[in-house]
Each structure stands twice: as structure tokens, then as C-alpha cells.
Amino acid sequence: MAGYHKSGTKRWIDRLGLWLAVTLLVSPAILFFLWMISLSLKTEIDNIEWPPIFIPTAPTLANYVQVFAENNFGKYLLNSLLVTGGATLIGLAVGIPAGYGLAKMKATKLAGVIMIARMTPALSFLIPLFIAFQWLGLINTIWALVITHLVITIPIIVWVMMGTFEGLPQDLEDAALIDGATLWQSFLLVAMPLSRPGIVVATILSFIFSWNNFIFGVVLGGKDTKTLPVAVYSVLTFEQLSWGPLAAAALLVTAPVLIVTIIAQRQIVVGLTAGGLKD
Amino acid sequence: MSTAVAGMSRNYWPFILPALIAVLGVIVFPWIFTLYMSVHDWNVSGTVTFVGFENYQKLFTDQRFYEAVGHTLYFTVLAVVFPVGLGLAAALTFHREFKGRGFLRGIFIMPMMATPVAVALVWTMMFHPQLGVLNYLLSLVGLPPASWVYNASTVIPTLVIVEIWHWTPLVMLIVLGGLANLPSEPYEAAEIDGATAFQKFRHITFPLILPNLMIALILRTIDALKAFDTIYVISQGGPGTASETMNIFLYLQAFAFFKLGYASAVVVIFFTVVILLSLLLLHVRQKTKWNV
Predict the structure, then answer these.
(1) For residue A52, which residues of chain B lie inside 8 Å, CB to CB?
(2) Which domains, and CATH codes, for chain A?
(3) What are the distances in angstroms from CA B110 to CA A31, B116, B166?
(4) Backbone phi, then psi, for B39, in 5-degree steps?
């Protein structure tokens, strides 16, 4: 399609336009994150300077030190890891077989129901779950959050895995079944190893969207069970902290996700274009 | 070979069962329970009284609810139109081949992966009327400082800016999925006929990716309707109630005023709208080859 008949000048203008478009598209993201880094590395004096200072005059890690020293940042980090890790592991344990079963049964209607869970507002689960957890005595426990986060992880994993298993050739599994393998053996020994890339995508997306979740933690998280996004909002507030430490904390919360995005951008693009999923 | 095993009974239900139980527990049970709650007066102390449709009646006379619906519609229209338009442009750009495309595409999708709360905190600093970097940037191009989220008339458009920044990448990915599946024959034919780039877009590309655009449009509508994190963190529905959308209204009724029955009635209405949109989405999705 690349116009081989185009003249040199025209080609040159075309390339220039393309790079201009690319620059315009990526600069809001780049500038935003650079500004975030800049805020986190500046002293309080630099941060309230007018006109704003873009490149710190004396870059300092003091803001990061303060975040860890003066708050229970370590505890919130552990909470986040437990909730996201737990919900992702349980999600994988039930979601991978489910994706397999749905793909084999071609049960798109049933899969559609699971997909609707991604569409409905979080608060439509939260009010009843809040009451159910009160009855069960699970309010302010990590378990309440892990269970609720399954609302995020299961649909993502089921959806990505269903697509992955649908793409596998049936012949290998048929051969195994003729040789006397059970369905579970065929699943575990034939289909699963062939689906490693899909499992990686499902794990990454599930981890990211569970990690980022805010509303579940706001409603169900107690004093000791706050996850990082909730802690960053409710404990490390503007009243208590200045911009530097707050920007440092915000960066620490989102850094794992951004690093994974850059490293695994290809897998993420594939996973998201196939599923149109989000939270 | 597959005919040889076709007669074997293959029961795949055991694979699905654990997920089904989990989904019933954390997703379907809450939906049904919400319906039940919406016809009761329910407060946190545990007293529950059946009130019939009183919650709904109250809702339809609640001025604050109507205002919230208005804010939601205003927010949603802006937060759908701009990301879909820009996302289409971004997809057409990233569909072309150039050096470092993968890496730059990775940068471009970073906003949609970033933790919304963390990002919202930094936006709050950027919107600061005296010290915010955005007003400095405005002053550079000779514009007067804006009051951003601190003014009732500008708060919603300002929140939309954050939403555009956040979610344009998702639209880009969905449209990119459509562009990747385009056949090459029509373009070769058009090339021979001497069609211009715009003619090729207008008559070949656009009709072929229209289903993807529709999916992006519906998905964006659903997400904009239920936007919560950034609004809650940046403006808390304020100033006053100027940016109180349905979801914020719902949250406040349930977890600030603890009117759980009343809030459940809001959920039921909200839910119905979202389900209708979701069914529309599934319908469009089935008509496309996008879901591969």
C-alpha cells in the first residue's frame, strides 16, 4: 500500500506528518509522567516555586524516604500484594478451567453473562457484599477484599483464556483422548502447556486491574486492611503531606503497573484487543 | 480423527463449575439481593422494613438525583466523543509502520494502565489555581488562568480532560484490532484506480472498522456512565454538587448517608441502563470478526 509511485518530496512530507502525529499522541503521557517524577524529586521549596521548576535544581530522594518512614506504607504494600495476589491466584485456579470448558462447549451466552460483570458499576456489587460481609463477620478483613476482587479477576481471566483455548488445534487433544487420557489429563498435559502465552496475558491483566482498584478498598477496607490506592487517597492526604511526598507515594503505587506495561506491552495489546476488557 | 471420538461423552461442566459458583456468589447474588433491598427501607443498624416502590417514588421526586443524571449525561457525552475521535486518529497512526512503534505504543497505553487514584492526585496538583503547572502553561500562551475543578461551570469539562487522557488508549486498541484484520485486496484495487488516501479511508477503511468503532463507542459510554475514581478523588462531586454524577450520588447515599435501600433503587435503574447497553454491545460484537 505504501505508495511506491510517490515522489521523494511527497514521501518526506508524509513521514514528517506521521512523526508529528506520533509526537502529539505520546506527549500528554510522557509529559504527565515526567512531571510526576519531577514533583517527587523536588524539595518543598522547589515545588511551590512560581514559575514552576521543571528540572529539579537539587534532586532528592527525601520524599521517598519520608513516605516509608512516616507512614505505614510497608503495611499497605503488603495488603495490596495479598489482595491482588490472592484474587489473581484464585482467579487463575477457577478461571483457566472455566475458559477451557466454555471454549470447548462454545458457550458464548454463558461467557456473555460473565462479561456483563465487567460492564456493571462496582457499586452494584458493593452494597450487598458489604451487608453479606457484615453478617459473616468479614468486614475489615483481607478476605473480604480478596473475595470482592474476584469480580475483577475472574471475568478477565475467563475471557482471555476462552479466546486462547478456542485458538488451539483440536487434533492433539483428540489424539490424547483416543490414547485413553481423561478430559482433565488432556487439559492439564496438552492444552495448558500450549496456552502459556495466554496465561501470561491473563495474569498480567488481572494483576494490573486488581492492583489499580480503588472503590472496593474504600468501602470494604478497614484501618488495617487498606490497599495502596486507598491509603494514598485517605492516609497520605493533602492536609497532612506536601506535594513532594504525595507525588512520590503516587509514583510508588503506580510504578509496578507502568513497568509491567512497558515490558509486556506486546502481550497487553494482544490481550486487550482480543477482549476489549478493562476493570 | 475427530469423528472417532465424537461419540464419546465429553462433559465439560466440571471445568466451569468452580468459576460458576464464584460468579454466582460475588456477582449474581448481589444483583438479586439489590433488587430485594431496593423495595426495603434498610439502615445499617439492621432494621429492615418493606416499603414497596417508595424508594423509587422518592427518587423520581429527588431534585438532587435529577441533577446527578444531568451531570452524568453531560460528562458522558464529552467523555465518549473526544476519546473515540482521538482514539480513531491514534489507531490510524499506530497502524502505520515506523521505527520504535512498539515502544511508543507502549508509552501511549500507559495512561490506561496507570493506577487511577495515583494519577488523579497528580492531576489535582496540576489543577491548583495558584501553583498548578497547567495555569503556568496557559500563561505561556497568553491565556488567563483557569479555575479548573474549583468552579462549578468548568469542573465537568476539566474532569473530562482527565478522562480523555486516561481512556483514549482503550479506544485506540479496539480500533487497532479492527485495522489489523483488514483485507489487502480492496486497497490494491483502489491503488490501481488511483484513489487518494482520503478516498481509501472514506470508502474502504471506515466502513470496515465501523463495527470496532461501535464497540468502542458503547464500551466508552458504559465506562463514562460509571466513572468514579477520578471524580471522587479530584472533586468529590463538588464544588457543591456541580460534578456529582449518578455514581457519586449513589456512593454518597449508600456509604456516607447509609440509606442502603434508597441507594439500591439507584443501582437498579443504573444497572438496567448498563445491561441494555451491554446487550447492544454483545449484539454488535457477534456481528463482527473482531472477537478472535
Answers:
(1) 131, 133, 136
(2) 8-60 (no CATH), 63-275 (1.10.3720.10)
(3) 12, 11, 9
(4) -105, 20
Cell of A146: 480478596
Residue B283: closest CA among chain A residues belongs to which residue?
A: A112
Cross-strand bridge partners of residue B49: B41
Condensed to tens digits (0 to 9), the pLDDT of residues A150-161 reads: 989 999 999 889
Q: Is residue B8 part of a domain?
A: no
**Angle B97-B101-B103 (CA atoms, 0-180°, nearest 5)?**
170
Residue B240: inside a domain: yes
CB contact under 8 A, A127 and B109: no
Q: Could you tell me if B111 and A270 are in contact, meaning their C-beta atoms sit under 8 angstroms apart?
A: no
> What's the CA gap between B24 and B21, in Å, rounded?
5
Q: Which residues of A touch B112 (CB under 8 A)?
A: 278
Q: Which of A1, A102, A122 lies at the smallest CB-CB distance from B16?
A: A102
* Contact predicate B165/B84, CB 8 Å: no
Q: Name the grid cell of B107.
A: 508509552
Are residues B64 and B249 in contact, defined by beta-carbon separation less than 8 angstroms? yes
Q: Cell 447515599 sits at which residue?
A: B253
Q: What is the CA radius of gyration of chain B?
A: 24
Residue B4's contacts (CB-CB under 8 Å, 6 or more residues apart) are A174, A178
Which value, in Å, is the radius of gyration of the alpha carbons in chain A?
Answer: 24
CATH number of the domain residue B208 falls in:
1.10.3720.10
| Nearest chain B alpha carbon to A210 | B115
User: A30 falls in which pLDDT band (50, 70, 90)?
Assistant: very high
Mean pLDDT, chain A, integer: 87
Q: Report how far residue A19's alpha carbon sits from residue B144's, in angstroms, rounded to the nearest whole number.
A: 31
Q: Do A25 and B90 touch (CB under 8 A)?
A: yes
Residues sharing a CB contact under 8 Å with residue B117, sequence separation 6 or more, in sequence order: A212, A214, A229, A230, A232, A233, A250, A253, B229, B233
DSSP for residue B119:
H
Q: What stretches in chain B show pLDDT beneath 70? A: 1-9, 44, 46, 287-292
Distance to chain B for A130, nearest Cα, Å: 10
Q: DSSP secondary-structure letter at B42?
A: E
% of residues, chain A, pLDDT over 90: 48
The three-state secondary structure class of B54 is: helix
C-alpha separations of B284 from A133, A158, B211, B241, B280 in Å: 38, 21, 7, 36, 6
Task: Inspect the interface and report whether the beta carbons of A272 and B89 lie closer than 8 Å.
Answer: no
What range defines the domain where residue B96 resides?
50-286
